[in-house]
Amino acid sequence: MSAASAGCAGCAGQCCRKYRVGVTVRDVQVLAEGTAMHPGDFLRLLDTDKDGFRLKAGGPAKGLYMQHVGGKGSGCVFLMEIASGKARCGVYAHRPLVCSNFPLSLQRSVVTLREDTLCGPDSWNLAAMDLPAYRRDLLRDKDAKVEHRQAIETWNERVDASGREATPEELYDYLLTCPIKAAEGPTV
Ligand code: SF4
Q1: At 93, is the secondary structure helix, strand, or coil?
Q2: Which of 23, 62, 134, 156 has its CA 20 to 30 A from that of 53?
Q3: CA distances (Å), 142 to each of 23, 46, 98, in order?
Q4: How many whole angstroms from 55 Cα to the centroid of ligand 1?
C-alpha cells in the first residue's frame, strides 16, 4: 500500500478489499481532518475480543474499522479503482498508519517484512524501501495505540457512569475530540 515499495506498482488493492482494517483514534482524526468527512462516513464498529469501546455498561467491546462499500470484493470506502484492474488509496496522504506501514512490522525494534501478507513477502524489496521513515511511522503507530487504549478507558468509564446506552454518533463525536499528541498523517 505504500508508493515507496515496488510491490504496489501492479497492485489490485487486495489488502484494502479483504482485510478488516482496524484503526486508532489518531488515524480517525487524521482522516476526518484530511477529508472533511465525519467518522460515521468511513468507519464501522465491529465486535472485538481486544480492547474496545462499549456503547452500554457490560456490552460488547467495539473496534474501529474502515468501512467497506458495495458488493463482494469492493473493499475500503477509500479504495479507488483505476485502469486495468488496479486500485489505489484515495486518501493516500491521510491514510491510517496501519496502511502506510504495510507490509512492515517492528520485531524486537527491527523493521521486518510481515510473512502473512496476501501478496506474499516476495512482492516487496526491503532494500528499496525507506526503512528509517517506516521505523518512524511504526513507532508513531505504537504511540497511537497507547493513546487509543487511554481513549477507550475514558469513554467506557463515561458510559458506565451515565447509566444509559450511548449511540454510535456520540462515540464518533467523542473520537474527534479526544486529546491526542499530533494528528499527523504518515511520512511514507
Ligand atoms: S485507507 Fe487507503 S490504504 Fe487503507 S484500507 Fe482504505 S484504501 Fe486501503
Answers
A1: helix
A2: 134
A3: 12, 22, 10
A4: 26
Contact 2, 123 (CB under 8 A): no
What confidence score (pLDDT) does residue 3 get? 36
pLDDT over 90 (residue 117): no
- Per DSSP (E only), the strands in 19-118 are 43-47, 62-66, 79-81, 87-89, 104-107, 110-113
DSSP labels, 116-157: --SS-GGG--GGGS-HHHHHHHHHHHHHHHHHHHHHHHHHHH
The C-alpha atoms of residue 125 and residue 136 are separated, in whole angstroms, by: 19
Dist CA 142 CA 63 (whole Å): 17
Residues 6-42 pLDDT 10s = 445 567 778 898 899 999 999 999 999 999 999 999 9
User: Model's pTM, two decimal places?
Assistant: 0.88
Q: Which residue has its alpha carbon closest to ligand 1 atom 8? A: 16
CA–CA separation, 31 and 42 (whole Å): 9
CA distance 110 to 81: 34
